[in-house]
Amino acid sequence: MGGNSFGTLFRITTWGESHGKALGVVIDGCPPQMKLSEEDIQKEMDKRRPGQGAGSSPRKERDRVEILSGIFEGKSTGTPISILVRNEDVDSTPYEEMRDLFRPGHADFTYQAKYGIRDHRGGGRASARETLGRVAAGAVAKRVLEQENIEIISYTAALGGIQIDTIDFGEIGKTRLRCPDHQAAVAMEKRIREVKRQGDTLGGIVEIVVRGCPPGLGEPVFDKLEADLAKALMSIGAVRGIEIGAGFKVAGMLGSECNDPIGQKGFEKNDAGGILGGISNGEDILLRVAVKPIPSIHLEQMTINAAFQPAKFRVEGRHDVSAIPRINVVCEAMVAIVLTDHLLRQKALERR
Amino acid sequence: MGGNSFGTLFRITTWGESHGKALGVVIDGCPPQMKLSEEDIQKEMDKRRPGQGAGSSPRKERDRVEILSGIFEGKSTGTPISILVRNEDVDSTPYEEMRDLFRPGHADFTYQAKYGIRDHRGGGRASARETLGRVAAGAVAKRVLEQENIEIISYTAALGGIQIDTIDFGEIGKTRLRCPDHQAAVAMEKRIREVKRQGDTLGGIVEIVVRGCPPGLGEPVFDKLEADLAKALMSIGAVRGIEIGAGFKVAGMLGSECNDPIGQKGFEKNDAGGILGGISNGEDILLRVAVKPIPSIHLEQMTINAAFQPAKFRVEGRHDVSAIPRINVVCEAMVAIVLTDHLLRQKALERR
Amino acid sequence: MGGNSFGTLFRITTWGESHGKALGVVIDGCPPQMKLSEEDIQKEMDKRRPGQGAGSSPRKERDRVEILSGIFEGKSTGTPISILVRNEDVDSTPYEEMRDLFRPGHADFTYQAKYGIRDHRGGGRASARETLGRVAAGAVAKRVLEQENIEIISYTAALGGIQIDTIDFGEIGKTRLRCPDHQAAVAMEKRIREVKRQGDTLGGIVEIVVRGCPPGLGEPVFDKLEADLAKALMSIGAVRGIEIGAGFKVAGMLGSECNDPIGQKGFEKNDAGGILGGISNGEDILLRVAVKPIPSIHLEQMTINAAFQPAKFRVEGRHDVSAIPRINVVCEAMVAIVLTDHLLRQKALERR
Amino acid sequence: MGGNSFGTLFRITTWGESHGKALGVVIDGCPPQMKLSEEDIQKEMDKRRPGQGAGSSPRKERDRVEILSGIFEGKSTGTPISILVRNEDVDSTPYEEMRDLFRPGHADFTYQAKYGIRDHRGGGRASARETLGRVAAGAVAKRVLEQENIEIISYTAALGGIQIDTIDFGEIGKTRLRCPDHQAAVAMEKRIREVKRQGDTLGGIVEIVVRGCPPGLGEPVFDKLEADLAKALMSIGAVRGIEIGAGFKVAGMLGSECNDPIGQKGFEKNDAGGILGGISNGEDILLRVAVKPIPSIHLEQMTINAAFQPAKFRVEGRHDVSAIPRINVVCEAMVAIVLTDHLLRQKALERR
Predict the structure, then answer these.
(1) D292 to C227: CB separation less than 8 angstroms, yes or no
(2) Number of domains observed in the structure of chain C
(3) What is the pLDDT of residue C319?
(4) What is the ipTM of this complex?
């Protein structure tokens, strides 16, 4: 159990390195008799693809998914679903000089410290390409949730210091930035172009809303719904902070402000973010994550090499200015996986 | 697996309700031949005890721990350590009227929705008393970490809107608030007394520092060290937000600001919070959690009863103004448990 | 995870040493709203009690169970059920000379080799008293199965070389030997008295039948129903062999003999023992286990001490001639736990 | 967790159907820095290949393994090892008539009962081809064990009613039957040819010996070494009985016969089969499994179809007479996986 699996009843295992032969995921515990096609998965994969907007990497990742098992005549059979993406368009030459360098902000040093060996090409296992498997599994999870009318929507709440002012859900799909505020989106695009010219990168904030989640999901006391969501989201490389509901604002609130009064039509506000005592309460689940700037910048940086000697270096290659557009998709995937898992766990408890 | 266990190799299982016969924890996977006494555990338990300062509950929780197994002649044997705390000083009468009420901010509604039954007395399983088992297990974990010279320190960084300005580690132990800034501590105590008179409660922020953690702990990609820490901390009832290192500040940073340069003497700053790619890098691990105000306020609140009819109620009983002092201890315990688990996982990987 | 937990959704964790303060079990994942009393559990505990027949130990184990959590007003709440049995009537003096001796057939040597420390009193954690927790958890599992009309019956098929010829289920409860063949039971009792006089002990065979198990339980490919049953039964200290259905007889069969033809009323015979491809098929589940003689004999034995010097010793103390009566109860408990776990896992899969 | 994973620290997940696109395995937790090539794995795969002897299926399974991840420049990196085998030479036509038939002795009926859907082609997920992934993972585990000088040898102890009389380890590799008794091997081959002509199939017994296992492996009380071995072996489709050490013979033994005396040079006999109290004692580990005849016979059989109407059918296609040769290899793989897992678990416990 080297940490590459997630989930209890709906359990995924991802594998693969950035410049290896392929990446993929095995999903164990998908309910049977569910319609599922490669296209269902490809659609999600295409959303996480870079190279489609300002500030995005020109790497042409086709990332064609292939379902190798678990589906028979268009339906899930209850057996493991194995999904494969071959690595194409891979040129490892630019990474050759990083074989013995530890790039700041990357996992080079820590993988070396942990394992005594690492695949330095493109970050190896620590590459963002690992999330291909998560997104593929998330696509399957979303199909399960659809059957229960549970919907997950993520959007960009801040990028490069620009915050959204309004939320128009209709705007989200219009740009690759997934920004629900048109004006903010324009400013974000401008900021991206600026920073791209400087060879630098940008962080931001993603918000995720879950609609239609029934009350009862989540297993106290350690597998609280928000605890599993926090783990799922914090396991995404670039995420450095997580909030549920009112988040850090609770620190300055009074109890009388923070408690959500309960009325006959449900909760009268939602500072709890849809979860009480680790169990969903039927309101929207509200999550917020802080995303750090991509560490691969085109400016010169100081570091050390494997001989512990100082070294300067500059990332060439192709890199996005911000992970935000992709991270939206990955966040949705991880939330979908957690909810599906807890949905199945809850079904096990219910009386027939 | 109803969610009451945590950890992989160092695995704890807590049990017990607020007004049941007892609460406790079973620790499976504690390394053998380690000196361990009831006193080692009692010391930590006493730190989480309420009733010792301004704004704290007068409930006299003695909470005497009893070790029932796993220790022989003062040393751990490698077999499960079972720790018991009997519930004494329990008066369930004040809760009788809440049998059919769903208190705002509490888990009453969601436990009922999930299980169709609940022990309403003192919050039942959702009570903060559940953390007794966590703190006892954390005391054991701390003993394991001590042997590796790993130390965990938590302190109160904000309470009731008052932030600390300076950090003097020597101040932390001086007050029950665990505040490292003397002046802020005075202001916090004042704020607590004020709010206590109003019958209201306060939230705050706790910061946790881990010193001496060697590089190499954490298992990518899902069991990243920060992911397991996030789950551990978010599984504490009152926690609504989590940050690692620079936390939400990364959202506004440039990559060139956020990356920690690596020099010959180590990392030149620590915005990463001691973890890169899910693996500890040898620097201090820096965590920050937002704690909501205790939902049990003495003001009248609106809610509904089990018949879905509106109801007003007011909490009588005895309650703290802020969970912050206790949560410090619980946070330390959870961090200790995660680190011990990953320490053992890392040992399994190492070459002999 | 020191190996003291078993199960996935219905998960038990046992703890305690033979001469420690107490032994017990925590059950996590018990379905809510199920009637359950201490008497339900005590009844099963009393069945595993020694000291009630020929060849049994005179140790007066009262073994009063106490339920500490998870039950509210007579019903399960879905939270962990903690069950405690205090050790009484414990005299560790006879074990003092074994502190540095490795008793043949016991786990003394291997615990020392593994942990570098052991509680030598009464076998410590390796004592048959550990099964108290299993039997208590099994009693809870049986209550779950009762609701689904699943019944588990075990009986003694051989003891001290005496095989049963006939199976009369009505006979089983009549004697403590749980022998379904009256004549065989008489011969077994005679054999026990004989061997008791010699200071020796006897092995035997237990068979277990599960009636009413619906088709569909078991998770291929590793968590096959028979695989989990095999693990559960082989985890009982004295068990050295396991058969499902025709068992070792299949080795000499032709395919045409071994296959169970399927007719309109179901399977026409049951050499498969109720499981095909790891999944229950609706027929009775048939299991058979070989139980070794209790290693504590009153004859002089050769061994070595902790200094690796030869030593002779003779067990004094109080010991049964055969584990068979108790092992019946433990086998039923373990089978009940496996079935309950798989029942819950199957419920998670079913369409609502 | 649909049951397709096995192991705790060395954890494998197999996937794939007999007539799907591919089959494979993901291995999580392989120690880093270990030399490993596709050839290491291919060698083991070739041993389980049918079509090489009397009574074997003519299906030309090339079964070329491809390592897709986890190996960098010839060495393991500590990240998951994904291994793929494409299905070639697949003709599903002969299975078309079995789409709605439940074949006796197969899992057709139970998969349908459990999942409400199944891939009927070649047995789908219940096919013996699933063991490809096990054998590939076993090859990796064997490399880990080699470094610790632990060796696993399996051989055929009985086939079609013919028992071995002598054990000459040099004989095992000489024939595909892996029989250590030359004369018995000749008789077995004769029996196979005879039964092949009749269109029937044969069962047998496989024995497995582990040499060089150090004391200390195994985690009491549920994850006893023999319990995990029993689960591992019973999870192989055709296995119906398991013995450790003296196995079922213990039922007729006296305690004084069964106990292995301990002398200064170790245990003086090995009826315990190398495990005491769930922990290896340093002696050879001795296991024995009963293997049922392959259920696909060429004789006419009675069954029912999906409409629960009686149906006669006769398997055409290509099938082995006995699974014994392949099962040897699969048993070795499963034993290797269990030992590797427990080796890593034990390393986590050891003092540095």
Answers:
(1) no
(2) 1
(3) 78
(4) 0.97
